[in-house]
């Protein structure tokens, strides 16, 4: 079996997450990277979307999780996104999700805070 990687880089959303009430009220910019590993040799040979990950569907799931909920932690967001991808995309063997929060309230200049979560499909 060969392994390939499909990535979505820097998907940007405006959402309302954070520990502070003000973050929930005002909201902020969130960026998401997703990297999935899978065997996409058949998809590449046959030029068949049905044999690889549908990154439009993955993007839609990310958007739903980020924009339709309010959580305290970006760790929660990265975990939920990874679990949803493994649940919905049967061809995915492993996933890495990075969620970045721009200008986090840390008491000084800081471009972003990020949480990285990696998960591998359990073998039956």
Structure description:
It is a single chain. The chain is α+β, with helices and mostly antiparallel strands. It has a single domain (4-120), classed as GTP cyclohydrolase I, C-terminal domain/NADPH-dependent 7-cyano-7-deazaguanine reductase, N-terminal domain (GTP Cyclohydrolase I, domain 2). Helix content is 32%, strand content 33%. The protein contains four helices and four strands. It has helices at 21-26, 41-46, 55-67, 74-88; strands at residues 4-15, 28-38, 94-102, 112-120. It has a four-stranded antiparallel sheet with strand order 1-2-3-4. Helix 3 (55-67) packs antiparallel against helix 4. The chain starts with a strand and ends with a strand. The mean pLDDT is 94.
Keywords:
4 helices; GTP Cyclohydrolase I, domain 2; 124 residues; 33% strand
